[in-house]
Amino acid sequence: MSTIATLTPEIAAPAAKDSRITKRIALYPGDGIGREVTEAAVTVLDALNAGGGQVQLEFTEYDWGVDYHARTGAVMPDDFLDILRPFDAVFLGAVGLPARLPDHITLVPLIRMRQAFDQYACVRPARTVAGVPQPLVGNRSIDMIVLRENSEGEYIDNGGRFRKGTPDEVAVQTAVHSRRGVERILRFGFDLARKRRRHLTMITKSNAQKYSYVLWDEVLEQLEPEFPDVATTKEHIDAAAMNFVRRPEVFDVVVSSNLFGDILSDLSGGITGGLGLNPSANLNPERKFPSLFEPVHGSAPDIAGQGIANPVGAILSAAMMLDWLGAPKDAERIRAAVESALAAGESTRDLGGKLTTAEATRAIIARL
Ligand code: GGG
After folding, report:
1. pTM
2. Which of 28, 110, 277, 280 to mutate to test the pocket of ligand 1 (most atoms within 8 A of CB)?
3. Which of 293, 321, 329, 341 matches a 20 to 30 Å C-alpha distance to 55?
4. In this predicted model, what pLDDT tens digit does every residue of 56-80 receive, in sequence order?
5. In what order do the strands lie in the sheet with 253-256?
6. Domain at 134-272, CATH from 3.40.225.10, 3.40.718.10, 3.40.50.1110, 1.10.10.10
């Protein structure tokens, strides 16, 4: 069984040259278990800082989300993008508490951030971890990255509702796939594949969506000669969903549109043992804007406030952030500590363990 010790060195920047350079991080814990797992990730980062990590981290926390909405009438301030722009990175927990506010309202800052900061490459690794059972697929060796186009596609805010509330109501929501957008995410995918097993699978539904996904097919075909050392496969989303379960070990880099990547990355978490494990990075590869790091999971209102949320997805997202900020050794220390704790069965209930969020976090810190 493979380990997670080298989960995402693919996105690592060269190590920071100046010793202990300071990086400013905006913390947006959000709602539900987002707050609990963010606290866990910051506790781990503080422990690294205290022991003299490669970079010094300075956190500023923003209390945006459902409670902020209850106080102010908005989920976040109007100028939230201006507030975030100067930071080196943004670290998010989770958003949404549908019993108190519709999810399409709480999700707005996340989607706007990804688009305004051109975080077009959403990197979502999923890998088998020693000590973690895989109830959905049995003991399979999985090591894939779901690379989600994150700036356009189905998440563009373009549409409307007509004859609202009448039996004749019609809702229209348009997806936008630009040649530039498709090309840059595929190039990013090819580059990632070159650092891994040199296989790229592109997921579309080009048999049924004959404009948008046929464009994806054509752009892939156009790029293939530039990357002769990378093997490519095309799959439709329905077949890919089945193959993630049937033969997950064949996938290396999986590139897809915004919506399909969102769905497939949850599934990739499920097959490796649970979504609580999975980290993600929303990257602006040109580094003109801050990138955003968050666990793949949501706010899990059913277990929020009980202190039992799995902190691993958030802690591994913090490791991805360190990779991106030029502290790959610190990132590796975190991944090794997580791996060692999980292998020893020191995990939360969702993974079959007995630990609380705080205990699981302490177990990881003890192994740093
Ligand atoms: N951890 C981030 C979070 O709260 N995700 C919930 C969610 O539904 N996100 C939608 C998306 O990633 O597009």
Report:
1. 0.95
2. 110
3. 341
4. 999 999 999 999 999 999 999 999 9
5. 55-61, 21-30, 89-94, 291-295, 279-283, 121-127, 143-149, 253-256, 199-204, 231-236
6. 3.40.718.10
